[in-house]
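Researcher: Sequence recovery benchmark, item below. Answer with residues only.
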């Protein structure tokens, strides 16, 4: 066990030790739902960026390279000034949803470079221009551009063209838990010396301005370069600054005169340090050198091509020699971080792959955030603040008054999405489990706790609408994290964790069945299900045609959910036979969903979700007059049925005779149901049984489309929409209304869901990851003799495991340098592709251009795109499904295998129009 592993072992939920402090600040608290007290829920306008420097936050704090305790009581972050900007650079700037031509977007250059899971060492980079930051120009130019034009980024402004910028590296190390070392290195990349103001800031989150009787903490000058922080609960800390900086003090309170033109009541407000440094206003800071916000002000000149170093230390006690062991401690922590990753990456031969994976893991760790939100208090308003508008009681999240969150949570992106999203979080946990299985398990448990999950069983989606419906992947993530953790532990696994989450997920499954199966036919609606604009209609709103949609993806997600819960119940049944009955319940529910997928409508003349002519799954629109119409959009919606797959080992069935007996009863007495499920009633490789929505024939037909490079298969993964729709868009006409879906490989031209994400062509990591895992499961059953053409028309016959590996390789290709040293994720920008101070710093975007691989959307969504770290693990495939040697092929699959083996190579086909 290396040093970092020992530190992780010391951390528990009740005694976090090393994790008591971490990178827990948001990168954007302004413009969030939590801070919105407007009558109509316009969060962006109610608390804009321009207010952030002057206005106290109610529910959290933000900053650059922020670090805090686990309740965000005492915060530490970086501020900068180049002598030209109109304001201090205290927080990251970006456009609001209404300002950006593709929705909200951060307009900064920063990178997470390194981090260890116990927070013993962290490193990030912020690129700060020496010329004036173009706040107005970014707003104006993006406002001028239409939705069909590219976004105007900071790197497009020319500020970096002559290298007149600073690379600001921020590193943290903990000497001991709560003894925090901060090392700032400023490197001048320009041809001339340039001055810079560096202001590390220490402040208390404002907890005293909202209710009467709250105790006010205090910061004071304890020595010439020491700030004392005293808090009634956190205790006493001291920030030591190296050298001879100036100390500035003000209060983390709103400047009412600047914000709302209120009378000047005197005081030293949140923007006091900004006004002192930028405007030279001596009266803006407290001459008594006390307050609740403070800065350590360094003013230095950095030589051309040179660097400066700034050192600080936050510890409980005053240290007479705070920097005596500083450099040695940093060197030791970096060496230990290298040892930790050397062990984790021991089977990855490529230096570049190791670098990319380490940055992906760093992003996962830096994206932890303290998330505080009490919905009942928020709706009611605070006693010491103006009364909230009465209509807020009937507005957003009014049905979620039980929700009271105050926890460290993995965020999708701490600027663009500084709030948890339930289905994103499930994917985060898969990558996090390799780093810190304990934290991954805590996250999965957290969303099922009573103060998160609705009393009716619904899991909260995200703060913009907790009642929205995300794909039910929590059970899948729970099972996968259990497997990963069990392998690491080398025992029977954390059954208490598995059982704890399972009980809550049974409530959630029941909520789905009761709320999202409109007619009790095992066909599910669900709404947009995280796929934003993938369909013809906004599936989360009332249909303009009336009626409802039977969703191929909603029904498939539920089939997958039933199988996931069945598998968890079977594992628990190995230790408690009571769970055999529950496993049987989910097994039978899966069968009924499988039947509905093929025979929705039954004898009433309805149509199935599977289209026999097109050999694809489509949504089906039910109109008010009783007629039905398939919505023939070839999209990820039709591939999601692949995800509902599970294999049962004969040894497991022998352990569970009651479940086996019920399974065999179905085999005998319900042949119609059994015939719908792919060979589950046949003995397969190693006498395994397969549960799946797809028979061998249908699976092959679906894969033929998915692996077609003129349709779904991109050089960089599987597209969310078939490229066939580029020239043959799907159009729906109804009552003079015309709606169409066209292949758009990058940014969206639709305003649906804010317009900042697009499922009509790009590559998305979460669904690609599930495709890979599903193919691995199918291979575990069918074996090496079952082969398909990949790519379609190439004549290359691959096993399903080889197909999974090919898709994984295409996804990792997004980030890895090719033979020319270029990374597709960087797009066509020559500076990011070729400049040695840019090219090896990787951003993990929200999604990727379906043809070129360019990163699109949120630039720091290491959350689910961090799954690339998992794909770079060579042990990954074996962990999902270990395969043994040559075993018999199921007789029922012999015909499929024969067809696959004798298939004649075909030349690549032209794009086919939709019938």
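Model:
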């Amino acid at each position: 066990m290396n040093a970092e592993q020992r530190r992780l072992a010391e951390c528990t939920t009740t005694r976090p030790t090393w994790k008591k402090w971490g990178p827990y600040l948001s990168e954007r608290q302004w413009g969030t739902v939590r801070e919105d007290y407007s009558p109509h829920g316009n969060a962006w306008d109610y608390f804009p960026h321009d207010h952030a420097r002057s206005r106290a936050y109610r529910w959290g704090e933000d900053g650059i390279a922020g670090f805090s305790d686990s309740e965000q009581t005492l915060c530490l972050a970086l501020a900068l000034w180049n002598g030209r900007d109109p304001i201090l650079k205290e927080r990251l700037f970006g456009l609001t949803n209404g300002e950006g031509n593709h929705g909200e977007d951060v307009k900064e250059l920063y990178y997470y470079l390194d981090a260890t899971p116990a927070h013993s060492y962290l490193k990030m980079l912020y690129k700060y221009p020496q010329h004036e930051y173009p706040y107005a120009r970014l707003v104006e130019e993006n406002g001028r551009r239409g939705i069909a034009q590219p976004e105007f980024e900071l790197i497009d402004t020319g500020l970096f063209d002559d290298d007149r910028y600073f690379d600001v590296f921020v590193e943290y190390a903990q000497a001991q838990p709560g003894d925090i070392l901060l090392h700032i290195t400023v490197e001048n990349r320009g041809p001339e010396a340039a001055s810079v103001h560096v202001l590390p800031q220490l402040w208390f989150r404002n907890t005293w301005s909202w209710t009467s009787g709250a105790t006010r903490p205090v910061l004071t000058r304890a020595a010439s370069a020491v700030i004392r922080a005293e808090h009634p609960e956190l205790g006493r800390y001291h920030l030591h600054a190296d050298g001879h900086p100036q100390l500035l003090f003000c209060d983390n309170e709103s400047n009412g005169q600047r914000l709302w033109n209120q009378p000047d009541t005197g005081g030293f407000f949140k923007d006091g340090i900004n006004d002192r440094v930028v405007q030279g206003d001596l009266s803006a800071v407290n001459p008594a050198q006390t307050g609740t916000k403070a800065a350590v002000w360094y003013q230095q000149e950095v030589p051309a091509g040179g660097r400066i170093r700034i050192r600080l230390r936050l510890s409980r006690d005053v240290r007479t020699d705070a920097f005596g062991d500083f450099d040695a401690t940093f060197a030791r922590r970096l060496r230990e971080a290298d040892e930790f990753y050397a062990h984790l990456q021991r089977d990855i031969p490529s230096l570049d792959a190791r670098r990319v994976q380490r940055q992906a893991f760093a992003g996962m760790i830096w994206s932890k955030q303290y998330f505080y939100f009490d919905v009942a208090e928020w709706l009611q308003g605070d006693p010491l603040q103006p009364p909230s508008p009465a209509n807020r009681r009937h507005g957003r999240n009014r049905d979620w008054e039980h929700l009271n969150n105050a926890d460290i949570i993995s965020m999708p992106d701490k600027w663009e999405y500084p709030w948890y999203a339930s289905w994103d979080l499930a994917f985060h946990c898969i990558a996090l489990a390799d780093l810190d299985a304990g934290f991954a398990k805590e996250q999965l448990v957290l969303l099922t706790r009573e103060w998160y999950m609705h009393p009716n069983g619904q899991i909260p989606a995200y703060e913009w609408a907790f009642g929205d419906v995300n794909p039910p992947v929590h059970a899948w993530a729970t099972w996968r994290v259990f497997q990963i953790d069990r392998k690491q532990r080398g025992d029977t696994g954390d059954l208490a964790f598995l059982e704890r989450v399972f009980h809550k997920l049974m409530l959630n499954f029941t909520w789905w069945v009761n709320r999202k199966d409109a007619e009790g036919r095992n066909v599910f609606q669900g709404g947009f299900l995280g796929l934003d604009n993938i369909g013809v209609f906004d599936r989360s709103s009332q249909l303009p045609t009336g009626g409802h949609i039977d969703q191929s993806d909603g029904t498939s997600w539920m089939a997958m959910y039933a199988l996931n819960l069945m598998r968890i119940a079977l594992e628990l049944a190995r230790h408690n036979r009571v769970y055999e009955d529950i496993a049987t319940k989910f097994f039978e529910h899966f069968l009924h969903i499988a039947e509905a997928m093929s025979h929705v409508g039954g004898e009433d003349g309805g149509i199935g979700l599977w289209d026999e002519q097109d050999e694809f799954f489509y949504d089906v629109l039910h109109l008010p007059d009783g007629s039905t119409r398939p919505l023939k959009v070839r999209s990820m919606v039709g591939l999601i049925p692949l995800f509902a797959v599970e294999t049962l080992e004969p040894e497991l069935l022998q352990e569970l005779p009651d479940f086996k007996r019920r399974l065999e009863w179905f085999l005998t007495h319900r042949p119609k149901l059994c015939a719908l499920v792919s060979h589950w009633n046949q003995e397969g490789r190693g006498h395994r049984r397969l549960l799946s929505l797809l028979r061998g024939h249908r699976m092959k037909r679906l894969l033929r489309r998915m692996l077609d490079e003129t349709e779904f298969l991109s050089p960089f993964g599987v597209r969310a929409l078939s490229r066939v729709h580029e020239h043959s868009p799907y159009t729906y006409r109804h009552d003079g209304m015309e709606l169409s879906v066209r292949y758009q490989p990058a940014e969206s031209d639709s305003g649906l869901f804010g317009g900042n994400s697009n499922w009509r062509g790009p590559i998305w990591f979460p669904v690609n990851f599930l495709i890979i895992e599903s193919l691995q499961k199918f291979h575990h059953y069918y074996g090496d003799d079952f082969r398909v053409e990949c790519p379609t028309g190439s004549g290359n016959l691959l096993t399903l495991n080889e197909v999974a590996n090919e898709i994984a390789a295409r996804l990792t290709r997004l980030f890895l340098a090719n033979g020319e040293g270029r990374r597709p994720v960087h797009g066509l920008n020559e500076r990011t592709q070729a400049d040695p101070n840019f090219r090896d710093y990787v951003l993990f975007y929200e999604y990727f251009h379906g043809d070129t691989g360019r990163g699109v959307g949120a630039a720091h969504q290491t959350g689910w795109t961090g799954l690339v770290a998992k794909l770079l693990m060579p042990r990954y495939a074996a962990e999902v499904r270990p395969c043994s040697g040559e075993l018999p092929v199921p007789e029922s699959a012999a015909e499929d295998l024969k067809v696959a083996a004798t298939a004649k190579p075909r030349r690549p086909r032209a794009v086919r129009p939709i019938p």
